[in-house]
Amino acid sequence: MNNTRQFDLWGIPFDGESTLGWPGSRYAPDRVRACARWINMRIQQGKVYCLETDSEIAVGDQLLTDRGDVKVIPNDTLKTFAATSSAVKSSIQQGRVPIMIGGDDSLLFPVAQGVHEALSGRIGIIHFDSHLDLMDESELQGRHSQSSGMRRSLELARIAPTDCIQVCERHFNFPASGKFKHDNDLMHLSAREVLKIGAEATVARILARVKQADHLFLSFDIDSVDPAYAPGAGAHEPGGISSDQALQMVEMLAPHCAAMAITEVNPTKDVGDMTSTLAAYLAFSFAVYGSQQQ
Ligand SMILES: [Mn+2]
Prior knowledge:
By secondary structure, the chain is an alpha/beta fold. The protein has helices at 28-40, 77-93, 108-118, 149-153, 175-183, 191-209, 243-253, 274-290; strands at residues 7-12, 47-50, 55-58, 64-69, 97-102, 123-128, 165-169, 187-190, 215-221, 259-263. Strands 4-1-5-10-9-6-7-8 form an eight-stranded parallel sheet, sandwiched between helices. The protein has a two-stranded antiparallel sheet with strand order 2-3. The structure holds manganese (II) ion.
């Protein structure tokens, strides 16, 4: 049973860089854990029964270990980032796959940094988000806000824009971010495109794009999902994917990924825990389907 991959769940209760939109994602790790309890208990004798395939998946008895929360310092973004990168690194160096539950989306950067420090070769990022997060620096938001995570990650030596893809972006953004994308050959698949071609074709296009990368990090801002399915977010961007499309794509991508982050789940805007429950299912599905390979 030990040829399956094992996963670590870490909370990062930090929303100090929610400089636009609604703060509140600091409450997500505990809510997601509470929602995950119902799901986790369905493993019996190292197996879980999967309804989509009507078959059992052998996941082992230690599929998902809760490593607790990263040491967050609300008043110090860079120290919080350093603690986040260390947690990611420690999991990967122990041969495990970290699943990081934020926190706001500034955390994309320190998670990417942890992956970059722990693994050699080319690192690619699959970035699900309704936003581009390519802001370089601004008076309102500084350098490390929830709007800059992808921009900062692309400054790391072995993360090339051509090994990355952004998925589910929509509506309007800064022309400066569009110019940065085009100048650097960064690619996105808009939410509208994803809704048109469906989950399977989207995953095929994602994997074709990142095939040169040696290791992949899946970063999932919950606002990629439509507010109708995930109201507990840092912002509401209509026109997103459904919860089922999100789950399908995460399941298909999981075997290829060395780390995952789920960010911007905001329990203060949630309705009956539906967004925290979706995040718990995304994390658990990533582990179940990701356990089978690599
Ligand atoms: Mn976002």
